[in-house]
Design brief:
259 residues, alpha/beta, Purple Acid Phosphatase, chain A, domain 2, 6-stranded mixed beta sheet
Length: 259
């Protein structure tokens, strides 16, 4: 669609480190969504939108009403919104689908073609080599029997357990400072190269890493990590011919890195 753009963002982690700071971040996200709705063809939210999300039969986590209302406004006005679940919000079911008409992807990555360009889009957790401990934990968390058992716990207790561990996370304590580890130690970079050895992808779009990265790969491919909205406030936008990684606060492009 001429003049329209496709937007990508991830790792809002709404809910941490506390109510007031999360609300401040939520308002920034809503302001950004309000700006991009003027030319958005489609919006991808690429995981960890919430720091914790679990749906009991009649209960979902309290809060986030501004954000959810803004998503409803977007979809009501014909702008498709797609969420790829992350490691913090993998327990989404059908609440957001029914209430907000959002498409939710539980398996990642997904592959799409827009304007002749091929995209691979995913949160990024569990992809690439190593991190075998997390991959085991992910299988347990995604196991239907484990999810059924957790759903039997009263929401007051279940959400209390989640909040307890959330408060101990690096995002809550502020003890995280992501730096580029070098291409040989960046698992998602390695994953992109492995995929390129099998098929061509123009743009790899991932989150999870909490570090905005725009890296040139072989054969004119690009690896974009979307950063986060806790420290960097970054998003990617594709205008039909070119993709840019942008800081929403300064409105400046993140320069491409050629390793």
């Amino acid at each position: 669609m001429q003049g329209k753009k496709i937007y990508f963002a991830s790792d809002f982690h709404l809910g941490v480190p506390d109510f007031h700071k999360s609300l401040e971040r939520e308002k920034k996200i809503c302001s950004w969504l309000n700006e991009i709705k003027q030319d958005a063809e489609r919006i991808f939210l690429v995981g960890d939108v919430f720091d914790f999300w679990f749906e009991h039969k009649y209960t979902v986590p309290k809060g986030f009403v501004r954000f959810l209302g803004k998503l409803a406004e977007l979809t009501d006005n014909g702008i498709p919104v797609e969420i790829i679940v992350g490691n913090h919000d993998m327990w989404m079911r059908d609440y957001l689908v029914k209430e907000l008409n959002i498409t939710i992807h539980h398996q990642q990555p997904i592959v799409r073609t827009f304007y002749g360009k091929k995209f691979m889009i995913g949160h990024g957790d569990g992809l690439g080599p190593n991190d075998y401990q997390y991959k085991l934990i992910k299988k347990i968390f995604r196991n239907p029997i484990c999810q059924w058992a957790f759903a039997r716990i009263h929401p007051n207790t279940a959400f209390g357990i989640a909040n307890y561990f959330s408060k101990k996370s690096r995002l809550s304590t502020g003890h995280y400072d992501e730096t580029f580890l070098g291409k040989e130690n960046e698992w998602l970079y390695t994953y992109c190269q492995e995929i390129l050895s099998q098929t061509h992808i123009d743009y790899f779009i991932f989150g999870h890493r909490h570090l905005p990265l725009h890296i040139a790969l072989s054969n004119n491919s690009k690896y974009i990590n979307l950063g986060d909205w806790i420290k960097y406030f970054t998003f990617a936008v594709f205008d039909g011919s070119k993709l840019n990684l942008i800081n929403a606060i300064s409105n400046q492009n993140i320069p491409e890195f050629i390793p």
